[in-house]
């Protein structure tokens, strides 16, 4: 795409987001995009997203407003890879090896995340699928438990058990009456019978009146 086509594309993209570019601002954007010839569209979307986060007094953008955001993006790029400042044709996209990304697991006893060490195998074992769902359940549970609607304040002594929406394990349903707030997975452990289960226990449930 030529310079004229790039300018038209930039003006169109900014207009769709509610912005109007002055001539000097347009040239600043085109100069920024020239650094990423292989990922021009991604760089443009990133720039517009960052400008949209700014506290702007007007939707008409001048050179200074654009240059301020461009400088922040280039500084962030240089911080990630100092050699990128000397590479004019660097792509905005990166391919990251999945075996290099740190893998964290939640410990429900200590209530902390810890990094799993050791080399990850390419092929999973028989129990890895169950571990995947268990880790995902623990992650969602600890995030939900930190929500103000599902956590009971340690200093709110006047809140009754009926008013509390604190998440309790499925095991708390066994032999207990009253209302409980639980989180689990619906599974079919037996033919024709559904269960609600979590890592602590599984209880049968009746879905005959459930509405899909």
Q: What do you see in this structure?
A:
- The chain has 212 residues and is α/β, with parallel strands linked by helices.
- It folds into two domains: 3-86, Helicase, Ruva Protein, domain 3; 122-205, no CATH class.
- 35% of the residues lie in helices and 15% in strands.
- It contains five helices and nine strands.
- The chain has helices at residues 3-16, 23-33, 40-53, 63-80, 128-145, and strands spanning 20-21, 60-61, 104-107, 112-115, 167-168, 181-182, 185-190, 193-197, 202-205.
- A three-stranded antiparallel β-sheet has the order 7-8-9, with no helix packed on it.
- A hairpin with a 2-residue loop joins strand 7 and strand 8.
- Helix 1 crosses helix 2.
- The two termini are 50 Å apart.
- The model is unreliable at 85-90 (pLDDT under 50).
């Amino acid at each position: 795409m030529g310079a004229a086509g790039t300018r038209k594309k930039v003006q169109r993209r900014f207009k769709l987001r509610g912005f109007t570019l002055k001539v000097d601002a347009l040239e600043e954007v085109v100069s920024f995009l020239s650094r990423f010839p292989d990922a021009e569209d991604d760089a443009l979307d990133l720039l517009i997203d960052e400008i949209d986060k700014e506290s702007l007094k007007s939707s008409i953008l001048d050179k200074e407003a654009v240059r301020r955001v461009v400088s922040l993006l280039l500084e962030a790029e240089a911080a990630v890879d100092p050699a990128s400042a000397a590479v004019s044709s660097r792509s905005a996209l990166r391919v990251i090896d999945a075996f290099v990304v740190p893998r964290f697991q939640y410990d429900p006893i200590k209530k902390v995340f810890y990094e799993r060490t050791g080399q990850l195998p390419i092929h999973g074992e028989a129990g890895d699928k169950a571990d995947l769902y268990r880790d995902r359940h623990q992650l969602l549970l600890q995030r939900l438990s930190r929500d103000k609607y599902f956590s009971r304040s340690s200093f709110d002594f006047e809140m009754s058990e009926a008013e509390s929406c604190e998440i309790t394990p499925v095991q708390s349903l066994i032999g207990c009456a009253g209302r409980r707030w639980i989180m689990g997975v619906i599974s079919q452990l037996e033919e024709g019978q559904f269960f609600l289960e979590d890592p602590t226990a599984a209880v049968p449930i009746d879905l005959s009146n459930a509405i899909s």
